[in-house]
Design a protein that fits this description.
Blueprint: H1 2-27, H2 35-42, H3 56-65, H4 78-90
Helix pairs in contact: 2-3
Length: about 90
């Protein structure tokens, strides 16, 4: 009889914790800004550091926040630079 009580107690506690986590997941949900990943995909991906950042991910983050221009990326071709500028102009605020 003790084992049945213990199993039922664990089922109830598991159910309550599951409901709590489900509600907390909906209430505390933060929408992710995908602009950094999008700009990172447009960069050449050499991670050369020629722009002064440790890699392309750092440059993508600075491009999205507006503290750097895409012209600092030396290996980036002109059409890629224009595509990034156009994307950032269209997606200024996420």
């Amino acid at each position: 009889m003790e084992i049945i009580k213990a199993v039922l107690l664990m089922l109830v506690l598991g159910g309550l914790i599951g409901v709590f986590l489900g509600i907390a997941g909906q209430k505390l949900y933060v929408k992710e800004d995908t602009r950094v990943e999008d700009v990172l995909a447009m960069l050449p991906g050499y991670n050369c550091g020629g722009c002064g950042n440790p890699g392309c991910a750092g440059m993508a983050a600075k491009l999205v926040e507006g503290s750097m221009t895409v012209d600092k990326c030396r290996p980036c071709k002109a059409d890629q630079k224009e595509a990034i500028k156009k994307y950032l102009a269209e997606h200024a605020q996420a």
